[in-house]
Design a protein that fits this description.
10 helices, single chain, alpha+beta, six-stranded antiparallel sheet, two-stranded antiparallel ribbon, about 250 residues
Length: about 250
């Protein structure tokens, strides 16, 4: 049976993700406002999350509880989290670019690590681990292009009507992305960054993440060359860090 969004599940995940992005915690009213939901319905869900240890409440403010961390430690299946930060740092120095590691989380991409120059938009997205649509960013397009077609089209079907143009653009780029093993974002999602991405593979050839190199607008003319350098660097350095370099 194909995966599809579920309203209650989406609301619970929304609560956890919103709280996780608020270091000082959130009151019930603030949380309901952030989710654009009725306080009564949010309170029912927060009561359940409190009871199971996924939230804790201090001074009437909600914070993440130990539950999510225990699940992550117990599963330890996100191979991208084991990618050595030194690998990311070496790529950044070699390519003279900001380097980001991104993973697919459901129908979105989340950046898990980055090294390089600060960018008001790009590094904010990386630091906050914010969800971004798969079919707009270079990293997201790389992930989409490297899943089976039935899964790719299922994910594209989740796009809103106002995102139809972005989906069409991705599909137009898809043959080149697969042929070149590179996807580009030329200042579309964030005007201050131009990004190219390529897949990161495990030794068995399975996709575990995407690696992106970003330059600012003043260096946009070297993005194609950066893409080729990125592929070459991953081929050379990847095996040193337990990745497939082919």
């Amino acid at each position: 049976m194909p995966a599809r969004p579920h309203r209650t599940v989406d609301r619970v995940i929304g609560i956890l993700e919103t709280v996780s992005l608020s270091p000082g915690g959130l009151t019930l009213a603030e949380l309901a406002a952030a989710l654009d939901a009725a306080k009564s319905s949010v309170q029912e869900l927060t009561n359940g999350l409190l009871a199971r240890g996924y939230l804790v409440e201090e001074d009437r403010r909600f914070h993440l509880g130990p539950g999510p961390f225990i699940l992550a430690a117990r599963a330890n299946k996100l191979a991208a989290l084991s990618i050595d930060h030194q690998f990311v740092a070496e790529l950044s120095e070699l390519l003279r670019s900001t380097i980001l590691v991104g993973v697919r989380v459901g129908d979105a991409i989340v950046f898990t690590d980055h090294v390089g120059e600060e960018s008001p938009g790009l590094t904010f997205v990386a630091r906050t681990h914010a969800r971004r649509p798969l079919y707009t960013s270079a990293a997201g397009k790389t992930l989409l292009a490297n899943v089976p077609d039935d899964e790719m089209y299922r994910l594209l079907d989740l796009a809103r009507p106002d995102q139809a143009g972005e989906v069409r653009q991705f599909l137009a780029e898809l043959p080149d992305i697969r042929a070149q093993r590179l996807a580009f974002n030329r200042g579309v999602t964030l005007p201050d960054s131009f990004t190219v991405a390529t897949p990161l593979l495990a030794p068995d050839g399975s996709l575990i993440a995407t690696i992106s190199a970003a330059v600012d607008a003043s260096e946009a003319d070297r993005l194609d060359a950066v893409g080729e350098e990125l592929k070459k660097a991953v081929t050379t350095l990847g095996p040193k860090y337990g990745l497939d370099g082919s």
